[in-house]
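tool_call: predict_structure(chain=1)
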Amino acid sequence: MNVEAFPGDAHCEIELFGCLNQWGTWQDATKGQKRGMLEEMVATRSSSPTQTVYTCLSALELEGAISFDKYVQSAAEDFGNVYHHVPAAVVFPASVQDVAKVIRAAAQTSNVVVAARGNGHSINGQAQALKGVVIDMSTLKGIDVHVEGKGKRCYADVSGGELWLDLLQATLRMGLAPRSWTDYLYLSIGGTLQNAGVGGQTFRYGPQISNVEQLEVVTGKGDVVTCSPTSNSDLFHASLGGLGQFGIITKARITLDPAPQKVKWIRALYADFEAFTQDQEHLISASKDESFDYLEGFVLVNSNDPVNGWGQVPFTADSSVDPNLIPPTAGPVLYCLEVAKTYNADQDAYTLQQVLDSIGGWYK
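tool_result:
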């Protein structure tokens, strides 16, 4: 009988010693006993999650690659750093068919957990699969920008493993940009669309999931389905913000608009919470011409701490907040309204200034 450790597994020898504890020492065992020890170990291994996954995936013919050892530890890490579930295998797909083959094989095998991983920014282990399979979507690449009807309709077909930063760079070269962003751009297309994609433009255009025209999704059965608001609409709406429970987004069609030429970026500090919220609500409800294109607010400590206080407000290291402008009646916390107004070179400067003067606070 040929017994060998399975790829990525260092427990074969340990399990053999476990058998020896029951049968006595290997040297004193008869040939029949030794054979029984090995058969017991193989029987145990054949039903283990690691072996189940290995059997499930090893026969697949993929364009990409599968790792049973080298990359499994890194797949157990994420931004949250709370859970560290080590998978049995990591798949690096080169095509949507690779993803479909893995899902199909897992669906036909009992108790195999599969999770899709974008750029590893989950905070609660959502992209981890304990003793299961992690599909690393970062190898699934492709950005195709389309301009139709002399610029009347613009969109990009983007693979789920691409980062929003990569999409922005590709579209800006053509004078275009997506409507809605997350503040941090090193996130995957498929990852944020499985959640929501909330940022400073959400109040104007909705989250990122509201600016998608079409999806390519691999379902839990391994079927590759193209869906939109008018075709397979149930899957389309379930997948957007569905936390990966209805399939893996492998491609998305993102709506694009002409990119502005310039932007005015402002942070205004408030000591009074009511004034802060009134300005915020006014800007959210105002028309586009009378408001900003980016709007967020946050709370900070009333101190010059560079991380938690008003020391974080200036845009450059050589500027600072004048503490004399902070009212003496201010409490332990301050409020910051962060806004941006996009415009083109030929836009009326007076009209732009009117919008800027519509908010209170100080340090503009």
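agent: The chain has ten helices and 13 strands. Proceeding to next step.
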